[in-house]
Amino acid sequence: MNLVVLENTKKNYRSGEIEVPALKGLNLELEAGKFISFVGPSGSGKTTLLNLIGCLDQPTEGKIFVDGTEVSGMNRKDSAKFRGDKIGFIFQNFNLIPVLTVYENIEYPLIMVQNVPAPERKTRIDQLLAKVGMTDQKDKYPAQLSGGQKQRVAVARALVTQPKIVLADEPTANLDHATAFKVINLMHEMKNEFDASFIFATHDLKVVGEADIVYTMEDGQITKTEKRGE
Which of 60, 92, 99, 193 is deepest in the core (most CB within 10 A)? Predict the structure, then answer.
């Protein structure tokens, strides 16, 4: 089953009076249940693509379908609701809220986005804290955590809404080599445990090496597709 489908998807940005093409007519089908990496130099269109899949932006032309729903024509309110129900995000800089504890950071989208009742919130959060090995750190604040611990919290926060897709933009860029491998392995475990698809934009060869499918992007286009184990 294809979880994401792009049909002749283009995205242009304006720089002054000049229109700059970021994506040049992508046609793409991404399978569910995969670890997928988009690689390429800065400016190749990786982050733009993730933003479109994540309903953070709209294409200039073309259509995008996520989990069977066309998202390319959604208004801001519908996009936000769809994101909250279907998509989790993991960022390079973790994006944890500094005044909230580990527990509260994970809980935040359940309150602000999904309005999940308190007993179910606690069940989900406790489960994920255990899965990512952060139960004993749940009352600490982000400033009290290492980079690897912060990214573990970010993984838990991304999965607590039970999304179909987790989008990760350079998630290991601020981690040392050993910690990056631990976080990648954790994401693999979470993919299998929660049946979520992980889609990465990355330069990190450690992430690329673990991917089921690798798409190479250059100048707003996909120039190479590599499927592992086939």
Answer: 92
